[in-house]
């Protein structure tokens, strides 16, 4: 296990078509893994990404940092672990790390900063979003 506390994790397997000519996962594919994990986390805490949009609220990424520490190859099993952190009154961060299984070797560290835009396209973290992201962990 790692030194961080995580509130969510999702396991994956690398598919052949996700690899480049070097036989390793293409660097852009990791962002797909990370995004899917964020969406599954949101669903697990009762936030429906599409439903929020229909009500005039869009969760958006405003910045991301990714440190690649190793590589995955076809057939590897791995887990993406996530923690949600409140950055400010209108910003949140998803700290996400990827570990190869079963040896738990760290493959990637990342941090995605985001906000919620209301119908006027202004940043606004609603009480619903704050409660879902941090209500049970504050």
What this model shows, in words?
Strand 3 (77-86) and strand 4 (92-101) form a beta hairpin. This protein is 23% helix and 36% strand. It contains three helices and five strands. The chain has 138 residues and is of the alpha+beta class. The two termini are 23 Å apart. It has a single domain (8-134), classed as Thiol Ester Dehydrase, Chain A. The longest helix has 18 residues, at 27-44. It has a five-stranded antiparallel β-sheet with strand order 1-3-4-5-2.
C-alpha-based Rg, rounded: 16 Å
Strand order of the largest sheet: 1-3-4-5-2
Name given to the CATH homologous superfamily:
Hotdog Thioesterase
CATH architecture identity? Roll
Our measurement of the CA-to-CA distance between the termini, rounded to an integer number of angstroms, reads 23 Å
Structural class: alpha+beta
Q: What is the CATH C level class, in words?
A: Alpha Beta
Calculate the mean pLDDT score and round it. Answer: 94
Oligomer: single chain
- From the spread of the alpha carbons, the general shape counts as elongated
Please give the number of β-strands. 5
Percent range for β-strand residues: 35-45%
Query: Major sheet: size, sense and barrel closure?
Result: 5 strands, antiparallel
CATH topology: Thiol Ester Dehydrase, Chain A
Distinct helical segment count: 3
Number of domains: 1
Fraction of residues in H or I helices? 10-25%
Contiguous low-pLDDT stretches (5 residues minimum) are none
Instruction: Write the element-wise H/E pattern from the N-terminal end onward.
Output: EHHEEEEH
